[in-house]
Amino acid sequence: MSAIRLGIDVGGTFTDLVSLGDGTLITAKVPSTPRDQSEGVMNAIRTSEVEATSVAALAHGMTVATNALLERRGAKMALVTTEGFRDVLEIARQNRPSLYDLSIDRPPPLIPRGLRFTVRERMGPDGEIEALDEESLKEAVAAVKEAGVEAVAVCLLFAFAHPEHERRVGEALREALPQMHVSLSSEVLPEFREYERFSTTAADAYLAPKLAAYLKNLAGKAEAAGVPAPLIMQSSGGVVRVEDAIADAAGCVLSGPAGGVVGAAYVGSLGGYENLLTFDMGGTSTDVAPIIEGEAQTTTETVVAGVPIKLPMVDVHTVSAGGGSVAWADAGGALRVGPHSAGAEPGPAAYDKGGEEPAVTDANLFLGYLNDGAQLGGEVVLRRDLSEKALDSLGENLGLSTEEAALGIVRVANAEMVRALRVISVERGLDPREFALLAFGGAGGLHACSLAEELGMRIVLVPRAGGVLSALGLSISDLRRDYVRPYLSALEEMDAREFEKRYEDMEAAAADDLESPDHTRRADLRYAGQSFELTVEADDLEKLEERFHATHEQRYGYRMEDEAVELVSLRLVATVPVEKPDLDETEAAGDAEAERREANFDGEWKEVPVLDRERMGRGSEVVGPAIVEFREATCVVRPGWSGKVDDVGTLVLEKADE
Amino acid sequence: MSSARLDPVTLSVLASALAGISEEMGAVLIRGAYSSNIKERRDCSTALFDAQGRMVAQAEHIPVHLGAMPEAVKAIMGRDPAPGDVFAINDPYSGGTHLPDITLVSPVAHGEAAEIIGYAVTRAHHSDVGGMRPGSMPSDSREIFQEGIIIPPVRLVRNGEYVSDVLDLLLANVRTPGLRRGDLRAQIAANNIAEARVGELIERRGRDTVLAAFDEVISYTEKRTREAIRKLPDGKYSAEDFMEGDGATEEDIAIKATVEIDGDSMRIDFSGTSGAVRGNINCPLPVTRSACYFALRVLLPKDLPANAGTYAPLTIEAPEGSLVNASYPSAVVAGNVETSNRIADTVLAALAGFAPDALPAQGQGTMNNTIIGGPGWTYYETIGGGQGASARGAGPSGVHVGMSNTLNTPIEAFEIEYPMRVERYELIYGSGGDGEHRGGDGIVRSVKVLSPASLSLLTDRRRHAPKGVEGGEPGKIGRNLLNGENLPPKVSRELAEGDVVTVETPGGGGYGHSAKA
Asked: CA-to-CA distance for A641 and A25, rounded, in angstroms?
């Protein structure tokens, strides 16, 4: 029977696979293959020994688009834009990136000066001001042809409302250059504000050829292996078919992190926790995200590698701090952690690869949270004596003992994490005390209880599949497509029939793209005169205004019922839900206590039990202070915390009343 | 006041939390604002002060705002502020900078006794505060009364409620009262967030620890600033530069700065600078201070938090009644936006004597203030230009280089909101000075008015080009045009329907000899 869903996530170091069928979960981990990520994907399938014929769906998350943007290795491409406005992408919003560092420039635009071409035409807020000059179009097409580019972005002023000229330019380009990829701003992002729309469109054209090559290659390999065509994770947290992913390349830049957030929402919901802050701490960076009522949240304000991409993306906030972040003493005598990271080479001092400065991992090792002599990924063996030496010399600079230095590093690193978690909760009007903290990633569980204490959170969740949560998220991701239509109008003057008609248009488009999808209607609103919109549910026109007031109040602390509310855009999210199976946790396999070791809590050394998560099972209990070692991660259960493994394998920790 | 010393760890942890609060204030203000100048261009700044009126943390927005905030807070502290109050001030002669910048200061209170433990401050550029011309940035004012309504430190909110008499009086004196009301409300919301967040921080850390952190964050910054100054050689360097007219005359007006470093302190003396002028490019002392702080900050390590500690090692001597320390009732509206840039240029040029490699060639040195208004609308924009090149590479093109860092108004937002059309907005290729590394290019922005309107331009570097360094060529000067005809650097005109105003901004200076030479 063909009932297995595969999720395969490509990360920087490992490619993870989860095979989910009838509640049983098989995982595989193989090294990533950065030159061609699809090799790692196929290796993972082979390693898992899953029968090709039993696979019903294969969902894939990757970093091909993100990396191309970060490394500026996308397509060679041209821009065709309105005459008089060729440099919108370079001028950007004309602010400098650093107030006081006068020689730092913004990242270079995706399209260099010599490849920006213009056509004579002009649309305004009310439609055509100057007709499209066919002669200038001919010249622009010839110039694009001459330039020998792989892709072209067509970005004309006011095309979000009046796309006719842009379509004509696109048509002429496609006719003359049928092999070339063409992105139109009115199709990629029909929203006002030219720089952000042009930038999103440029990213789309820049990434499409590379993504197409990769995905077609992968699809070919999948076909040869007899598994279904892959479904591709989008930044929005839903999967699409390969051809749709290629057609919407800019929508794939957060393909990687999106899987983790979806996986976290799934595991949390299974255990009955629908409101979560996710905390994914890795070696060099940490991702945090809010999940409300079991759903990952999306935002349209993401900037990736200096390029604003205003498409709906999972609301993940990333800070560049992780286990590898290096601690140092600055000239003012303060202890600082990061932003510099020791990475994998030389890595923390404990790796014995030449790193001499202590990293967060060294502090965790010295304090007894990590095991002296533990093996990481087979080759690296942690050496506590090297951590101690590095911490010792840092402490000397700061007038701190080795122990104080280690405790201090953890506290300073935690402060950064708390700040990140506050950005996605308090600053969004969400009270963290009403949320559970779901920790994953290699280092998530080490810091989770401390962070929860700082934020007044009482529940910490550490899922069993924490090491492969992104792949798990992929395996249960819904098919999803997002649509948007501009509709600038005062809410009071809005025509209800026109409102309905635009949604119906989008629903018709969705019906072509997906098989009988579910629809969620949303709308972007603002107080007339403001510049920033808030997105609210729009299933009920009557409730729209009140929902906006309420959302504004939650987000910014006040509402203004005497002010007119304005509609800006209508959005449709179309999804085809996938059945989400329960996970089964097995019975405990006897006593889970593997050993006891000394660990330091708030300056006090205590001998604490170290439990092996693999020997724990449904109902197994832990009382802090204790340490639980998962297969790929470690969880510190601080004094005052206790918990047990629930029916789906999540370690649920609760803080006792004080 | 607690005298407990914080350990290096707690210090780091709290510095991060305080910076987070001022940044969140900024986000709330921008999101809630109504006028394009604040919501799109972000011409506003936010900061947190301690009970003694020292800046503890700021969101890094607009340099010219931030250095001048302490005076505003001092002025409010003298008015017996109580919890629940919000004070407004814009008077340049009692703590403001120029009239469009309205500053709101709220005491931050804590506990049942409602002890005032600090102040939340927001400063925003309101694109009309009345006066002789729409936009309140005339080129031809001769005394401050012509520049708008003067707000001495007054309570705008008492006990959490608007003092409606004051608000009504204020709104009756401006051309766009609806926008002003919305913008002020956004400022108040930002101040309120600060009080809530500081309260939460105290709940977690305790009052004494948080107050100790205020102290220590400042002394930590001072220590590091002194460290950086000590690394520079002792000595004295001077520089001189010019403003191109004041709106009343076309003459050059001299600014002279002498910088002296002695151990870990720095003194800047403006002796030799021109006296205050008849036009409006005069600076009240807080503006001059901002410009000096900016120049100093450019030399300091980039990871230093911004607060009162940065300024402690610096003394400034500015002769009373001079261009850089004007007295009541001199007109000052352009001092804040134009002269401030030249002061920074001049001080940076003198500082280059101490640290020649640390500084780039001169950037555009002007904000190219463009103000257009008609019945019921006012538009204010500053336009980016070329930054100077440096040893590290070419100068950035089309950016703000000095005392401003506002965003542009998107063309699509601009044309929806105003009866105007943008005809051209692009870089002037090759306008940056040649050199081993090229200076950044300036911008050309042409706007056509679709109904009669009033224009003011406050610009500079239309005669004296931004200089190159180490053999680099100067950047190209800027130009102002009305229907193709040259306009002076500072000018006000009435526009007819269909008139086209074009501003070409200067390029940045080049660095090093060009390979071609």
From this structure: 29
Residue written as token pair 């249960």: A476
- Round to the nearest angstrom and report the end-to-end CA distance of chain B: 64
Tokens standing for residue A198: 């042009």
Q: Which of B46, B197, B392, B399 best probes binding to A when mutated, by most A CB atoms within 10 angstroms?
A: B399
- pLDDT tens track for B121-165: 999 999 899 999 888 999 899 999 999 999 999 999 999 999 999
One-letter amino acid at A157 equals: L
d(CA B252, CA A502): 60
* Chain A residues 499-528 with CB within 8 Å of chain B: 527
Nearest CA in chain B to A529: B34
Cα-Cα-Cα-Cα torsion A186, A189, A193, A195, nearest 10 degrees, comes to -90
All residues at 6 or more sequence positions from A293 whose CB lies less than 8 Å from its CB, including other chains: A274, A275
d(CA A283, CA A346): 12
Alpha helices in B352-449, H assignment, sequence order: 411-417
- Distance, in Å, from the CA atom of A93 to the CA atom of B406, rounded to the nearest integer, reads 8
pLDDT tens column, B97-131: 999 999 999 999 998 889 999 999 999 999 899 99
Q: Record the pTM.
A: 0.90
Tell me if A252 sits within 8 A of A63, measured CB to CB: no
**Domain coordinates in residue numbering, chain B:** 8-221, 360-517
Contact A197, A185 (CB under 8 A): yes
Does the CB of B463 have a partner CB in chain A at under 8 Å? no
Task: Return the residue of B nearest to A530 by Cα.
Answer: B34
Put simply, whether B423 touches A (Cβ < 8 Å) is yes
ipTM: 0.91
CATH topology of domain A479-576: Dna Ligase; domain 1 (3.30.1490)
Range among A567-581, B198-212, B480-494 rated most confident: B480-494
Q: Chain A: nearest CA to B200, how far in angstroms?
A: 10
Give the mean pLDDT of A285-314: 91
CB contact under 8 A, B224 and A105: no
Query: Is B7 close to A408, i.e. CB distance below 8 A?
Result: yes
Instruction: Assess A176–B contact: CB distance below 8 Å, yes or no.
Output: no
- Chains A, B: CB contacts within 8 A come to 204
What residues does each domain of chain A span? 325-415, 479-576, 585-658
Distance of CA B482 to the CA centre of its chain: 28
CB atoms within 10 A of CB A128: 14
Residue linked to tokens 């901004």: B505
Closest CA to A398 of A347, A336, A342: A336
CA distance A349 to A382: 9
Residue A363: how many other CB atoms lie within 10 Å: 31
Find the helix or strand (DSSP H, E) in which B435 lies: none
